[in-house]
Amino acid sequence: MFDFLGRVAAGHPWKVLALWAVAAVLLGRAAPDWRAQAQDDDIHFLPDDCPSVRAYHLLEQTFPRDVCASRAILAVERDAGPLTRADFPLVDRLAGRLNHLKDAEPRLQIAGVASYRDGPVGKRLTSADGRCTLVQLSLATPYLAAQTRETVDRAEAELRPILDAAGPEAPRLFVTGPAGIGRDLVKASAESLNQTTGATVLLVVAVLLLVYRSPLLALIPLVTIGVAVFVTLKLLALVTLIPGVHVMNVSQVFAVVVLLGARTDHCPFLFSR
Fold it and tell me: Rounded distance, CA 97 to CA 101, Å?
C-alpha cells in the first residue's frame, strides 16, 4: 500500500497536488461548521447498558426537573462579618436576573436557578455563620462544554453590573462549582493550545531553516501541514452527518497535534531522500 502511494506521488506529483487542492475546495464548501457538529463530553456517548446511563435514565423519569448536566455555584459573601439585611434583597435581584436570562435566552440552556428562598434546599444555601449565601445555576450542558463556558461567562457578565451599582460596600461575588471550574479549565486549555501551536510553528520554521538554509523548503512543510489539517477537520465534520457518528471537540486538538507532528517529521525525511 505504501509502496503504491509512493510510486503514485513520485510519478504524478502535479496530479496529486491538484487532487489535494480539489479536495480542499470541495470539502470546504460541503462540510458543515465544526463547532456546530462537534459535541462535548456527554453521557449519551456511552452504551445504554452502562450502569451510569441506566441510572441517569431512571433519574430523568423520576425527577425530571432535577436532572442537569452541570451546575455553576455563585457565592455571595462578606469577609468582615455576616451578610446584612440589605444584602439579601440584592441576592434576590441576582437570582431574578438569572431567571430572566433563562427565559430570555433559551440557547444558554439554563435549566433552573435556586437561591436561599427555594424551599428546603434554599435553607441549606446560606452558611451557618451567615457570611455567605449561594445561588445555584443548573445547566443542561456538561461542565467541559464550550456552551457551558459561554453560559457561565454570560451569567457573570449580567450580575457584575448589579454588584457594581450597589457600591463599594456590596458583598463579593465568586463563581465556582463544576461548571465554573469547567469554564476556567476550558479557557486555560484553549489559551495553552494557542500558545503551543504558535510555539510549535516557530520551532518548526527555525529547525527547517537551520537544517536546509532555504525558506522555500521551510515553507513546503507548513503549506502541506495547513492543507492536511484543513482537509482532515472538514472531513471529520462531514462524517458527523452520518447517523450515529459523533465527534467530540477534543478531537480537533488530537487531529492538529498528530498531523503537525507527523507532517513535520515526514517532510524532512522525504526531502533528504
Answer: 6
- Cβ atoms of 139 and 70 closer than 8 Å: yes
Q: Which helix (H) or strand (E) holds 74?
A: strand 70-77
Residue with cell 434554599: 122
C-alpha neighbours within 13 Å on the C-beta side of residue 89: 3
- Taking the C-alpha atoms of residue 238 and residue 241, their distance in angstroms, rounded to an integer, is 6
0.90 cut: is pTM over it?
Answer: no
Between 7 and 270, whose confidence is greater? 7
C-alpha 217/C-alpha 208 separation (Å) is 7
> Nearest Cα to 74, choosing from 161, 134, 14?
134
Which residues have a Cβ under 8 Å from the Cβ of 34 and sit 6 or more positions away? 233, 234, 236, 237, 252
Does an H or E element contain 215, and which?
A: helix 215-239
Domains of the chain: 2-41+190-272 (no CATH), 68-184 (3.30.70.1430)
pLDDT tens readout for residues 185-209: 888 877 887 787 778 778 777 877 7
pLDDT tens for 35-74 read: 666 666 566 667 778 888 888 788 778 877 777 788 999 9
